[in-house]
């Protein structure tokens, strides 16, 4: 009886891979990760390059593959015994999820785009992000900045979401304590790790 119950539990267990959004890190999934694990699932929240506690320097990110390297390496490490994963992506993480699907289609059971960017099969990966930038008036970005780097023949740019922008546009519906904690973590993500470089990195890919 115990073996049957255990087999049923294993059958219902899912393996989730969680991908964070722009200027954030794996920490954004902490509460969700805990709830899924309590329910018996296996969960991995990935810090993409130059995000969260990943110590990659933004100057080292030249392509979308560079930015998604931690995610791609994790998926590559999964064996046949690990089963297929369910990828859950938030915001800009949708672009990373799409790349993962192209690279490891046989290892992914499904992708959940949670208010996330979903690239099409015609335009470059950065198309949806560039369209967003054009649709929002400059003054609405508040203290958000774009920083150029790279080389003259291969210019790159990363977007740095400012604390005022995040407080007003991203955490406006969150409890004050949650908002303060999130902005404190974001300060490290954005200022110290300088996350991240999407527009030209995606196009460069």
What does this entry look like structurally?
It contains 9 helices and 6 strands. With 205 residues, it is an alpha/beta fold. It has one domain: Alpha/Beta hydrolase fold, catalytic domain (Rossmann fold), CATH 3.40.50.1820. The strands form 2 sheets. Strands 2-1-3-4 form a 4-stranded parallel beta sheet, with helices on both faces. It is globular, with a radius of gyration of 18 Å. Mean pLDDT is 81; it is low at 1-8 and 186-205. Methylesterase. Its EC number is 3.1.1.-. Residues 16-143 form the AB hydrolase-1 domain.
Key features?
205 residues; alpha/beta; Rossmann fold; four-stranded parallel sheet; two-stranded antiparallel ribbon; globular; disordered N terminus; disordered C terminus; MES/HNL
Can you summarize this structure?
With 205 residues, the protein is α/β, with parallel strands linked by helices. The protein is 40% helix and 20% strand.
The number of helical elements comes to 9
Taking Cα atoms only, what radius of gyration do you get, to the nearest Å? 18 Å
- The parts where pLDDT drops under 50 for at least 5 residues are 1-8, 186-205
Kindly report the spatial arrangement of strands forming the biggest sheet.
Answer: 2-1-3-4
Give the name of the CATH architecture.
3-Layer(aba) Sandwich
**Count of strand segments:** 6
Enzyme class: hydrolase
Pfam families: Abhydrolase_6 (PF12697)
Family: Belongs to the AB hydrolase superfamily. Methylesterase family.
EC number: 3.1.1.-
